[in-house]
Amino acid sequence: MKRLVFAPQLFAAWMEGRKDVTRRLVRGDKPRYKEGEIVRVVTSWQVPAEYDDCRPSELCQRAEALFRLDGIPLCIGGQNEDGSEEILLAKTGKLRPGRFVPKGLEAYFPRARIGIVTQERLQRITKYDCLREGCPSVRNQNDGPEGWFRALWESIHTKKGERWVDNPLVWRVRINKED
User: Fold this and answer.
1) β-pairing, 3-5 with 85-86?
2) Mean pLDDT in runs of 10 for the chain (179 residues)?
3) What stretch of H or E contains 19?
4) Residue 27 and residue 25: Cα distance in Å, rounded?
5) Are strands 38-42 and 3-5 parallel, antiparallel or unpaired?
6) How far does the chain reach from its first CA to its final CA, in angstroms?
């Protein structure tokens, strides 16, 4: 199953129902995600510190996964030998990128169904779509939702040709929660 990787604050916005659109750089002539496809939505994650020396591919499937929701670690337990849920609070280890979630822990992350996928220039984003991208309360934003989205984009995309000022082509991807 393909993955859709979000920064922790955007993952939290999606989980809270404040995000249902994402933009991805156009690479090639076909979008990475297709309408109707089911994907796994992942973000940064952690396991207990005792596993810090393990590569993601080496992690035991029983290890409890801790992943970050808006800066707050959330414990997701494995299963005990008797089949009951195991939730252990342990010293959390290093934060790992969502793209390195091992297959054995992938099922702890939610799924989404891809909606309509369209191509557009980045700077064509509307105020309404900035809100749909997960913009937090507008009352605290000096530049409004557009300024928030621009700052977010610039914090993620720093290479020439990908930056806000370059106005790259992007795929606008609608994402719906899958129960």
Assistant:
1) unpaired
2) 91 92 95 96 82 77 52 51 50 81 81 97 96 81 85 95 97 93
3) none
4) 6
5) parallel
6) 16
